[in-house]
């Protein structure tokens, strides 16, 4: 446990003189030359030589010319404690990091991305807590590098959280944390896998899950594992590392990867670490039922010696549980059948995000239709597709406003929907004065001022929780 000290400012803080040395592991894949070199020079220039034993660059099978022989020559000409390892095939960040960790020789491992810039004196705030407790995992506050100007932008920092699709978010620091704003504070979920960890503790946890594909889920697997297996994660406000925005990077991000890779990784995390609560993840996306996790024997062997996920939620991530309460509850789900013409149901038409949608012939089973016609309204009171990540949105406020598919944000507004079971109207927006309507002459789905006399504005769900819907409207 990291004890509270004082309100001493970061620039006035002194650290122990016998801090452990580190091996810094930086993985990259097709990174921009200027970005990678900025990262490398930043780490070397702003890290005390007494603390830096080595930097290990791990190339995840890049195919950019500079990242091959020219990079070897550049490193040899400018650095004495930097070496390069290369993957034999493109395998993803976690596999590349494991290669670097196996080669590391220092007592503390620091994992970094290849598109960062460290702040002044960034390392001692991470090392001192680890020296005092070798089961403490330390993360810097991750600032931003503007994608357009490449300027450094500071952020406040908060406690990592997640919803039941494993979407990462941040919640405010606890009131007791803000009494000592420069002191490390507990974090249930590390933000972006920029962290320092005692090497022996990393290997006791068996490192990263070697069954992961490509990218996705690493921060959740590591965070659950650390907390549940007698470790702790802290963020250090006096350690600042800035991270370049995703849409400027050449390296692929999670959203560009095939969804099946990410879902497979998430399912592995859930099956091993989430226990009873895994059902809240699986019920939100029917695709999980068709995904195989592969062998989980090694991961479950580690898990068998650790605390429960319920303990984690109640003791560590209690604010996450309050913000995103686990629930199988649905107000309504299934197909949405039009009462003006009962042959037609709301359908995504297999279209992508930001596209308009329409209607098509209803599936035979309205309670359990095919994916394109499956919709649900849950506790967030939005209208979600079968994968529970895409919502029906109304971006325009005009007559015959078209409805579109949009990534769910859970904040209501244009994505707020309530089903009025008495009138059969699907009301949109916080005031509920506009309703979903099918235009019979062109089969468009639009939103207009609610009118109980319009049959094409009335809808029937495949399944409804009548009592809950009636209570919602009272």
UniProtKB/TrEMBL annotation:
- Species source reads Drosophila lebanonensis (Fruit fly)
Location relative to the cell: Golgi apparatus membrane
Q: GO biological process: what's one of them?
A: protein O-linked glycosylation
Query: Which Pfam families does its entry note?
Result: Glycos_transf_2 (PF00535), Ricin_B_lectin (PF00652)
Its record classes its membrane topology as:
Single-pass type II membrane protein
Pathway(s) this gene product operates in, as recorded in its UniProt entry: Protein modification; protein glycosylation
Q: What is its EC number?
A: 2.4.1.-
Q: Which InterPro entries match?
A: GalNAc-T (IPR045885), Glyco_trans_2-like (IPR001173), Nucleotide-diphossugar_trans (IPR029044), Ricin_B-like_lectins (IPR035992), Ricin_B_lectin (IPR000772)
Under which name does UniProt file this protein? Polypeptide N-acetylgalactosaminyltransferase
Cofactor needs: Mn(2+)
GO cellular component terms attached to this protein's record: Golgi membrane
């Amino acid at each position: 446990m990291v004890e509270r000290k004082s309100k001493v400012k970061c620039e006035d803080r002194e650290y122990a003189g016998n801090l452990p040395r580190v091996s810094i592991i930086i993985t990259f894949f097709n990174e921009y030359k200027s970005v990678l070199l900025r990262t490398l020079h930043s780490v070397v220039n702003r890290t005390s030589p007494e603390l830096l034993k080595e930097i290990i660059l791990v190339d995840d099978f890049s195919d950019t010319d500079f990242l091959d022989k020219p990079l070897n020559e550049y490193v040899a000409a400018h650095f004495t404690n930097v070496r390069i390892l290369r993957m034999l095939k493109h395998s993803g960040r976690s596999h590349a990091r494991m290669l670097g960790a196996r080669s590391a020789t220092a007592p503390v491992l620091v994992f970094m991305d290849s598109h960062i810039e460290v702040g002044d004196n960034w390392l001692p705030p991470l090392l001192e807590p680890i020296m005092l407790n070798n089961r403490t995992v330390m993360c810097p506050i991750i600032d931003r590098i503007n994608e357009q100007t490449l300027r450094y932008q500071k952020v406040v920092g908060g406690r990592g959280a997640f919803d039941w699709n494993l979407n990462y978010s941040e919640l405010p620091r606890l009131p007791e944390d803000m009494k000592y704003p420069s002191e490390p504070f507990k974090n249930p979920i590390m933000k972006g896998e920029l962290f320092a960890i005692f090497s022996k503790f990393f290997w006791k946890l068996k490192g990263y899950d070697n069954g992961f594909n490509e990218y996705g889920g690493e921060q959740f697997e590591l965070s659950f594992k650390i907390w549940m297996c007698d470790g702790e994660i802290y963020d250090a406000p006096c350690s600042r590392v800035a991270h370049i925005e995703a849409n400027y990077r050449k390296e692929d991000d999670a959203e560009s990867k095939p969804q099946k890779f990410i879902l497979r990784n998430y399912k592995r995390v859930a099956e091993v670490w989430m226990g009873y609560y895994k059902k809240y993840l699986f019920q939100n996306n029917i695709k999980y039922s068709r995904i195989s996790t592969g062998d989980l024997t090694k991961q479950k062997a580690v898990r068998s010696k650790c605390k429960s996920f319920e303990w984690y939620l109640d003791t560590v991530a209690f604010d996450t549980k309050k913000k995103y309460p686990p629930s199988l509850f649905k107000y309504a789900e299934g197909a949405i059948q039009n009462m003006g013409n009962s042959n037609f149901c709301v359908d995504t038409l297999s279209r992508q995000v930001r596209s308009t949608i329409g209607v098509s012939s209803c599936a035979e089973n309205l309670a359990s239709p095919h994916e394109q016609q499956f919709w649900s309204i849950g506790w967030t009171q939005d209208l979600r597709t079968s994968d529970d990540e895409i919502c029906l949105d109304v971006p325009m406020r005009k007559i015959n406003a078209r409805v579109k598919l949009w990534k769910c944000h859970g904040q209501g507004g244009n994505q707020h929907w309530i089903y009025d079971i008495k009138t059969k109207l699907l009301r949109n927006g916080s005031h509920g004065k506009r309703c979903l309507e099918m235009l019979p002459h062109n089969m468009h789905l639009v939103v207009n001022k609610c009118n109980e006399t319009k049959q094409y504005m009335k809808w029937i769900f495949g399944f409804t929780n009548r009592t809950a819907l009636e209570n919602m409207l009272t």
